[in-house]
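Researcher: I've been going back and forth with a colleague about how PPM-type phosphatase domain-containing protein might be arranged in three dimensions. Neither of us has a model we trust, so I'd like an independent prediction. The organism is Panagrellus redivivus, in case that matters for your notes. Sequence below.
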Amino acid sequence: MLTRRRRCSIRIITPSSSARPRPKANATTCTIDMWCRRNSANVLPFSVTCIVAGSICHSNTNFSPLLYPIFSSRMSYFALFDGHAGCAAATFACDTFLKKLPQLCEKYSAPSYSGPVLVKNVKKIFVNMFKDVEEDFLVQARSSTPPLKDGSTATLLLLIDDYLYTANLGDTRAVLARKKTNEAGETVYLAMPITVDHTPMKAEEQARIRKAGGFIKDGRVQGVIEISRSIGDFAYKAFGLCAQPDIQKVCLSLADKFVILACDGLWNVFTNDEAVTFVVRKIRAGIHKINDDENRHVSRTNPNFSPLKNALLCSAATDLMKAAIARGSKDNITIILIGFKTAMLDM
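Model: Here is an independent structure prediction for PPM-type phosphatase domain-containing protein. You can compare it with whatever you and your colleague have in mind.
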């Protein structure tokens, strides 16, 4: 059993102007190492790093916060919110989801936030959280003077034992890297999207918007909003924009290496496969170098948890962010890289 545990809540905010200026390479970097107790053979200890790049402006800021709390030794929570038309919706969602989660977990399970009752009710917890956050923010938005026009994407990841649950609105995407051997006996890494992008270009989204009396122009709802589901954006909710999340569940194994959670500043210039391949190559190269150095200079008692290997996540995320900027990303970029530490060893 791993005994090191840390309870923390971290928020990283990146502003950028409505003109979406090109991010600068001097990003804020935060690295957090976490260990979870092994309550079953399949629970994977993990590390997480967050890289942020953006530009400061004086008005109409967009925020991309990261929340990272631990409520119990069996459950971890990650979330990313990418705001538009201002920071209010992203900030409100960032704070309110964090408050609602423990309340709803306690309501639908034992106070330990664990056990089969909680797992059975995860979907219900997600649905109620999104409903409450949306309703509460719309009340605030409409009662403000002037009314708040802000909106935000929302992507939540909940890790309970070896199950990863996701719920999302908008185009902030999470991609899981899974190792596999193909028919030729070669090792490949599958890039598995574990969230659903909500854009007005998808047929099912268009149908809902048009049924509500809205229209799509230049790939945007009413010619303005480029996502079809969001928190906030109250002026467009009458035209089919909604806050109903897509919810998915993945059973993790040692074949699962890491998750990339990022806003569209990355995905506008990187495909899922390209991003996963980029990170795999960076981690592989780093592990080979570290192993060579440690074999020469260090007597290793437990190489599986070398602090140097943890630093590979930060390096890989930083290089991925810089590569996105080099490819011409004009949006703010937030990348959260969650690496399953024991699973990274055989990359």
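Researcher: What would you highlight for our discussion?
Model: I'd start with this: The domain at 28-346 is CATH 3.60.40.10 (Phosphatase 2c; domain 1). After that, consider the following. Residues 256 and 269 are 24 Å apart (CA to CA).
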